[in-house]
Task: structure prediction
Amino acid sequence: MGRPGLNRRQLLGGLGGLTVAGSFGFAALGTGADALASDAHTRVRYWNLFSGGDGYNMIAMLNSFRKDHPDVAVKDSTLQWGSPFYTKLAMAAAGNRAPDLGVMHMGRVTGFSPGRLLDAWDVDLLAKYGVRKQDFNPQLWNRGVIDGKLYAVPLDIHVQLCFYRKDVLKKAGLLGDDGRIVPVTSTGEWFEVLKEAKKATKKGLQTMGFWNSDQNFQWWFFVAFYTQLGGTWFNDADTEVTFDTDKAVQVLEFLRRHITDGYADPGFAGPASAEQFVNGSPFVWEGNWSVPVFDTAKVEYGATPLPPVFGKPATHAESHAFVLPHQSDRGGPANEGAHRLAAYIVRHARQWALGGHIPAYRPILSTAAYQKMSPQNEYVSAMDHQATEPKVWFAGSTGILAQRVGPIVVSSTMGSARPESAARRMKSELTRLLATKNPMDGRTAAQGGAVA
Result:
C-alpha cells in the first residue's frame, strides 16, 4: 500500500510561503488525551483545526461518539488554524506519522497531492456506517472526488452572509410581512436598500461593513458576485484562462461603490464592522461563524446569502471535510474506526449547525429541529447556490490564489487601483498560477487530477 513519498527537503521547499517554524510543537491535547492508553479494541488518532465555538461543538460531538461507541478510543488533537495546520499535516503524511483521520478545507484537497499525501476513502465502508453520495449536494460531494476516487467527505459548507438588523430595517420600511429583508435582485435595488437604511441608522455608525481591506473577505465576495454573473476561470482542461475581465470590472465597481457612496467607512475594517453591527449598524457581510457571536450579543437580526444583485443566486462557500492523511500501512481497525467516526459526526452535525455552518448531510436539513433554527433556516438555500473557487491546486482557504489575487481586489475596493487595471492584473496572475507547478508534486493544474 506504500506510495512514493516526499522527503523532508522536498516538502519544506515546496511549502514555500507557509509557516513552518514551530510546526512540530503546537498540537494541543484534545478531550481524548488518554485514549491511546485505554483498553478499547480500536484506537483512532484525529487531528482538527477547530477552536472557539467550533471547538466546543466538535468536542460535544466527539463525546457523543465516545458514549455511543465505547469500543473506539478517540485521541483528538487541535492544531493551529491556517497554514501551520496544513504544514504539519503534510509533514506527518510524508513522514509516515500521520493521524488516522484529519480535517481539511475542501478547496485545499486538490493541491494536497491526493494519492500521495491523502488516501482515498472506502465508499462501501462509509455506506456501511450511513454515509452515501445521494445524501449530499452533488456539487459538494464531487469537489472531494479526484481521478474518480473520493478523497474528502464533506462535513458542512460555511458561507458568506448578509447579516441585517431587523430593528433598523423595520424603521426604514425594509422588512417584509415575514419579518425578513425585502427581496433584492439587482444592484440598483441593493443600493436603494442601503440608501433607505442609512436614513434610519444612528449617527456615527456606518450603513454596512464588509471587511473592505481584508484580502480574504474581498476575494470571497468577488468569487460570489463573479459567479452570479456566470464568470468562469479556466477551461475544462485547465490549460487556458477564461477569466472575463468585463465581468470582473462589473464586480469590482460594485464593491468599490459601497465606499464611494458612503455606505461603508474605509476606517472601519475587520472586526470593527462586526462591533458596529452589534451597536446598531444595519448591515454587515460576514461568515456564518458570526452567528454565535451575534446570538450572544442578543442582537435582533437576520441573515441571508449575499444578495443576488446580478440576477443569479450565488454566495461564496467553502467546506470543512474529513480526509485520510496518507499512511503506508493504512487499513485494519484504526482505518475502519476513522470511517466510523467521520460518518458519525457527519450524520450528527445538527450540533455543528449551532456554530452557523450548514450541515453537508442533507437529511439533517429536513428535520423539524433544524428548520426551527434561526437564522440558519433563512440561509440554508445557500447549499444549492454555492460559489466556489476553481478546482485547482492553488485554490482553497488560506491558499495561494487568495494570497495573490485577494490584494488586487482590495486595491480596487479601497481606490488605489482602477477596476479595469485590477481586472487585467487578476487575469495576468491567474495566467501565471495556471502555468505554475504544484510544489507538492511538481505538476501544473493541467497535469493534476481530473475533475469528477
